Amino acid sequence: MTDKHLSSQFDAELSGISTRVLEMGGLVEAQVAQAIYALTNFSGETASQVLAQEERVNQMEIEVDRDLSTIIARRQPTARDLRLLTAISKTIANLERAGDEAARIARTVQRLVNAGVSSRMRLPVADVSVEADLALASLRKALDAFARLDVDSALEVIKDDNRIDREFEGMMRKLITYMMEDPRTISASIDLVFVAKAIERVGDHAKNLAEQIIYIVKGTDVRHNPIAAIEQMVR
Amino acid sequence: MTSTITLPPKPPALKAESKALDFYYGSFKALKAVSMPVYEHSVTALIGPSGCGKSTYLRCFNRMHDLYPGNRYDGSIELYPDQVNLLHSSVDPIEVRMRVSMVFQKPNPFPKSIFENVAYGLRVRGEKSRSFLEEKVESALKAAALWDEVRDRLDEVAVNLSGGQQQRLCIARSLATDPEILLFDEPTSALDPIATGSIEELIGEIKGKVTILIVTHNMQQAARVSDYTAYMYLGELIEYGPTGDIFMKPKRKETEDYITGRFG
Fold it and tell me: What is the pLDDT of residues A73-89, one digit of tens each?
């Protein structure tokens, strides 16, 4: 939001709340990255750190929500200001859920480590990290796009979600093969299925965030549309 | 899937339409080619900063400007369904004001009884039947949501009513002559929030009977009461559209800057 309101206090409130969203996004991004690190390195310690962060993310969601209500009550925002605030309301819910997915992964890692699973079992954790890298890149790009209100980047995030979905499906097939070939890996493989699903969900949240960015800038609600239709709507 | 707008399911019929309307205060051009529809049984709000021409535009509709020398109209305001040009010199401004009535910023009851205030327009028109007048006064006061408060004191002087009641009385006075269009020029700017709320509620109720044009400085009021909103600036119509669109997703940057408080 480059141009200013008559009320500089209102400007400060809007930029303040946007900054908090980005802060929260950065925290969640780090949480997801750490969760993946914990998984690929079977590090129970890193997993604990991820879980410790969850409390902070939850708290930020509550604080941003409270600030949103205050701004709406006091400023009666309209047009793009109102779109920004409703989009932020949805965005923080998505970020909080992405954080939940990171916590889910962390808890799985703890369970695997406690069960004595290690890199010696040669589970396809490297393949999980391919999917995770894509999802993390999407989340990062969505947050960047939010900071710059960049519709083109947001569109890329939406497009990239298909790649993450395909990666998830490939991962499923691979894990099924592992389980069929060596039934001793079944328990750990099922855990990895849930991890892969959690990563896929992080990608979905990034996509939701991207859709909100388009709503802020263009005023067009592109949710629940195929990518071709979205590109049409945004043009 | 574009943004949802609060349009009535079927676009209502045109009640009036200004076409390339220019207006001059002497040599000063206060309105510049304003073309805009006014839909029947809907509320159209005119917003914009002071001096943008919104009150000037409103006053063209009942030929108020005729009262001062040197004022000049160009273009037309057609009233439907008969498509008569309100501004044409052959049209009697008194006749126009019977069809297009105005409620002002400050309530202006006449120094008469409540009854006579409401009956005034009908008496001017030559109506003498007491029973007809009583019937009309009652229905106008009911339509203006004032009947229950004044039914037992119709003979008391109107200036003793509260500000909000006086404004509703003025609305009743306007409604008594069955106008087709009711013009509101900042009808609540002199009222407290409760009285404002009752006037806004009333506007929603009477739009079933009359077509309403309202000038307001309070943008939230425009957002609350109107079906269509027009944003004016420096005598020009910048943007017109369904109110939901104007306040959620205006097309013009000037409109967005104004309604979001970036104007300056």
Answer: 999 999 999 999 999 99
Are B260 and A81 a contacting pair at CB < 8 A? yes
User: How is domain B14-259 classified at the CATH fold level?
Assistant: Rossmann fold (3.40.50)
Strand order in the sheet with B71-79: B28-39, B14-25, B71-79, B84-85
- The stretch A160-175 carries a mean pLDDT of 95
Integer Rg of chain A from CA: 19
- Taking only the tens place, the pLDDT of each residue in A65-75 is 999 999 999 99
* Sign of the C-alpha dihedral computed for residues A62, A66, A71 and A73 taken in this order: positive
Q: How much of chain B exceeds pLDDT 90, in percent?
A: 86
Tell me the chain A residues in contact with residue B226 when contact means C-beta distances shorter than 8 Å: none
The two most distant CA atoms of chain B are separated, in Å, by 58
- Helix runs in B54-128, H state only: 54-60, 93-99, 114-124
Inter-chain touch A220–B256, beta carbons under 8 Å = no
What residues contact B125, with CB distance under 8 A and at least 6 apart? B98, B177
Separation of alpha carbons B222 and B219, rounded Å: 5
Interchain contact, B259 vs A78, CB within 8 Å = yes
Give the domain ranges of chain B. 14-259
ipTM of the shown complex? 0.76
Report d(CA A79, CA B13) in Å as an integer: 28
Q: Residues A188-223: pLDDT tens digits? A: 899 999 999 999 999 999 999 999 999 999 999 999
3-class DSSP state of B130:
helix
A8-234: in CATH 3.40.50.300:
no
Annotate A94-130 with three-state secondary structure: HHHHHHHHHHHHHHHHHHHHHCCCCHHHCCCHHHHHH
